[in-house]
Specification:
about 350 residues, alpha+beta, Beta-Lactamase, Hypothetical protein af1432, 2 domains, six-stranded antiparallel sheet, 14 helices, 6 strands, about 50% helix, binds ligand C2E, binds succinic acid, binds fe (iii) ion
Length: about 350
Amino acid sequence: MAALRSIDLAITSGIDLTQTLSMILDYTRNHLAVDAASVLLLNLQNQRLEFAAGAGFWTAALQHTQLQIGEGLAGQAVQKRRVVHVPNLKTRKTDLLRSPFFGRENFMEYYAIPLIAKGEVLGVLEIFHRSTLSADQHWTNFLHTLAGQAAIAIDSAMMFKNLQYTNDELTLAYDKTIEGWSRALDLRDKETEHHTRRVTDLTLRLAQRMNIPDSELTHIRRGAILHDIGKVAMPDGILFKPGPLTDEEWVIMRRHPLIAVEILKPISYLIPALPIPRSHHEKWDGSGYPNGLAGEGIPLAARLFAFADVYDALTSDRPYRRAWSQAAALEYIRENSGTHLDPNIVSLFIRMMTE
Ligand code: C2E
Ligand code: SIN
Ligand code: SIN
Ligand code: FE
Ligand code: FE
């Protein structure tokens, strides 16, 4: 019971499969008093049984085992879904003898137990003993229980792997989706189709220089990609106006950060990315919008992003003016240190742009 309990714990605590199998094999050897034991796993890609873990062997004889289903004693156990028992290996010609070192192991009695979970064969547990085993009902029951535990361990490890794979796939799909939205916005704006990519790259470079942890960078990247998604709600007459905006038009334009929040906030995985769309037009001195935040009251991600956005907007053509030179844009950034932009980041940004 104690052995089974420890194995249960190992399975549920998500210790890796090789470790769990080694533990099961140790218990198998100790509690069944057998000399050696191994687990072969069925590789679903090539439908072969491959060595996964072993204990009690003198040589590496079996470590390169690769069997087809039906091949060898283990392959037969899998194919027939039943225990294969050989009381004396020495009087039988088996595929095991193909391994040049197998003779040196001096094994006599052998069992192969198929490992089955939810009706699927996942592999096989092999038992080797160098003399005759005296198997009674207790012994046989415990053998089957251990095999059942091994099957559950393998099944849950495989499920975990698949789940992780699905998760990675989903994240990738989400990221492609938000890139698609932002691409739609850039296409509408006609100009600077690479604006979003450039401001995103610049923001991430700046964030890396400030040693912002990788876990944050993911949210910063998504926030940068989506920063102006609220402009989808701006009428063409305002967005593409060749001259300065009137007061009424500014009232509408200044809504784009909160429109972005309205669009994105129902999407839970984007909530940590909201600071940039919401606060990218706040200014250090409190004169920005939508909330008039000031200084470090403005989320750091948004303060960083403002450098990239202003720099890239100034050095790009806009319907209302031609692109500025890099020198003019950097001069503007220097002049607006402490009014528009975070004065503690200005020199870091200028160094990054000029080195
Ligand atoms: P945007 O063109 O992408 O500009 C982003 C930010 O870069 C601006 O935020 C501003 O901080 C800075 N910026 C861009 N161009 C200039 C410029 O020529 N001079 C100065 N001093 N700063 C500049 P802001 O001001 O909150 O504007 C937000 C958005 O409103 C702009 O995004 C643009 O879509 C629109 N907008 C701003 N000014 C005008 C304008 O005069 N005419 C039109 N049609 N749209 C404008
Ligand atoms: C654009 O979406 O191309 C312009 C948005 C901006 O620079 O703020
Ligand atoms: C911070 O404010 O959290 C550090 C970055 C800065 O200098 O503003
Ligand atoms: Fe904006
Ligand atoms: Fe922008």
